[in-house]
Amino acid sequence: MAMFELRPYQQAALTALEDYWRDGGGNPLVVMATATGKSVVIAHLIRDISRRYPALRVLVVTHVLELIEQDLIPLRTLWPDAPIGINSAGIGEREWGAPIIFAGVQSVWRSAARLGPRHLVLIDEAHLVPHDGDGMYRTLLAELRALAPADDMRIAGFSATPFRLDSGRLDEGEGKIFDAIVFDYGIGQGIRDGWLSPLTSKTTGTEINISGVGRRGGEFIAGELERAADDSATVSAACDEIVARGVDRRSWLVFCCGVAHAHHVGQELSARGVSCRVVTGETPLAEREDSVAAFKAGALKCLVNVNVLTTGFDAPRIDLSACHLDKSPGYSSRRRLRLC
Fold first, then answer.
1. pTM as predicted
2. Which CATH number goes with the domain that contains 320?
3. Please, are residues 7 and 37 in contact by the beta-carbon 8 Å criterion?
4. Which of 57, 125, 256, 293 has its CB surrounded by the most CB atoms within 10 Å?
C-alpha cells in the first residue's frame, strides 16, 4: 500500500477539491503534470468521499483501457472491498449497476440510463472533452445530468493540459463543462521537488524525406507519411541511433507512424539484439496485455507502438523514448527522429 501513499502535492490536490466543494463549488479541474500520479489522487478521493457518503454513486471515465486499469489499481489497493465495477468492451466487462464504475467512454456513452444517476463523475484526461458540439463525452454527461436531481451531480476533470488547441482553456468560454482550475502542479514543480527527472533530448542525424507527403486539414496524410518513414535505409539508420543512444538505458518506448512502419522498426531492433515487441491497434488484447506486462516488469527492453501507449501510459522504468518525426529547423522537406 505504501506505493499509493500521498505525496505532499497530491494531498494538496485533495484538499483543494474538498475546499472547493465545501464552499459550494461545482465542477472543478485538477491539473497535474504527466507522471505525478493523478490515479492516486482519484483513488484517495473516491475512498474518502465514499466513506463519508455511503450512498454515493461514482463514475470514472476515460478513453483507453490502459488508463481504466491504471486508475483502478490504486483504489483496489487502498480499499480492497470497494464496490467496484468495470464497463469496458476492450477489457471484456460490462457492469452497469455498481456504486463505483470505471468505464471507457466508448462503451457507455450511448447508454447512460443503464448506469443510473451518478453523483460524481471523474474524467481522466479531461482535455479530450470537446468544448462544444455533441461527441461521446458531452452526450454522456448531458444524459447523466438529466437522470440526476437538480444540482446533484458534480463533474471533476483531471489532466496535465487544461486546454484544447482548437478552443482554449477548459474552464473558460461558452459551453464549458469545468468551472475552475482548483489545483495546478506542473512539470517544473515536479522536477524542482524531486518527483520528476529532468528531460534531455537529442535530434538524430537520420532524416526522413517528406517532400512528397501531402497535407490534409493541416496534418500530414497518414498513409503517405508512413510510406516516407518506412524507407529501409532510413529505418536502419534510425534504429542504429536508437541502439547507440539507449546502450545505458533500461527501458525504451518507440513511437511509429503506422503499423507496417512499427513492425519494420521492431524487426530491425530485434535484429540488433534488442528484446523488443510491437503493439498496435491491431494487436490482439491478450498479446497486447502480455507485452505491456513484460515491459513494465523489465523482462522486455523495448516496446514499439502506434498511437496505443500514449496518453496516460504509466511505466516508470522508461528512460528512453524515441518519438518519430520531430520537425527540424531549417529543413522544409525533412523530418528527424527525436530521442528523449
1. 0.80
2. 3.40.50.300
3. yes
4. 256
